[in-house]
Design a protein that fits this description.
- The protein contains two helices and two strands; from the N terminus they run E-E-H-H.
- By secondary structure, it is of the alpha+beta class.
- Strands 1-2 form a two-stranded antiparallel ribbon.
Length: 93
């Protein structure tokens, strides 16, 4: 899913809203996979596919730092504790 950062958003100053991801970025890209099966085996194929897509896109996206919107979940950026609340250290890379 591509979310353009131009249009109406480009008319607002960067300091007027708490969204610093616009500078030099034309789009935000969301990588999404859905599945209706449970278990580690069921997730391997779509996870493998999304990782291949990310590898393909890597030369075309921000690099240093690798930018990510904090509320998007990413298996390679951090995890949540399945048994309850998650602390900052556990969710960090």
């Amino acid at each position: 899913m591509f979310s353009p950062n131009g249009g109406e958003m480009s008319e607002m100053s960067e300091s007027s809203i708490p969204f610093p991801h616009r500078t030099g970025n034309i789009y935000k890209i969301q990588h999404l996979i859905y599945g209706d099966e449970e278990g580690i085996v069921a997730i391997r194929r779509p996870t493998s596919w999304i990782r291949r897509l990310c590898s393909y896109l890597a030369p075309r996206v921000s690099k240093n730092p690798r930018a990510v919107y904090v509320n998007y979940r990413d298996l390679d950026i951090g995890i949540n504790n399945p048994a309850g609340s998650t602390g900052y250290r556990q969710a960090s890379t």
